[in-house]
């Protein structure tokens, strides 16, 4: 029985087939395979993530990240002999949860907590993975991840909606929120990387678990290079 019967394996490593096969698999892949210990990726929850910024410490709680199931695959490269795999895609993601923030933004002392919503429009990402081939204890072949690196771009826009930045003043809260949104790229570059790191690390761990439960032959119809 195929563990992931939504995968349509390619008969070669052509870019066209790999892109289509990956794109078709994403909506099901992000649901995970809970019965086999592969967690879901859309949505997933960031239980707690602290981001120390210059002069400000922001902590997110129970941040629910959604949108991966609608990612668009831009490119896939699979070089089986070199054990090398590249995936490029773009997505709109939304993060909703609670936050607290203590410190200063500009000259404003901040002591806020409340609901947070961050929307990323057209986040672009490229993940570069070195793979290896392993056999499980039944002698079945699997892909495994040796190491990876990634690059990303915040894309077209990041929108912040942080309620109650200043407990004392709604007006001041709105002023600073407008500043954050007007300068979204600068703010994101300081603020966003820990969130993206967290998401990528989770996705890589999920792919690793997926590779361990789904045999190589179910993923691609090309023999392992000797």
From TrEMBL:
Name of a matching Pfam family: JHBP
UniProt keyword Disulfide bond, yes or no: no
GO (cellular component) term, any one: extracellular space
Keywords, ordered alphabetically: Biological rhythms, Signal
GO BP of this protein: circadian rhythm
Entry-linked InterPro entries: Haemolymph_juvenile_hormone-bd, To_sf
Protein's UniProt keywords contain Transmembrane: no
Ranges annotated as spanning the membrane: none
Membership in a protein family: Belongs to the TO family.
Protein name: Circadian clock-controlled protein
Species annotation: Papilio machaon (Old World swallowtail butterfly)
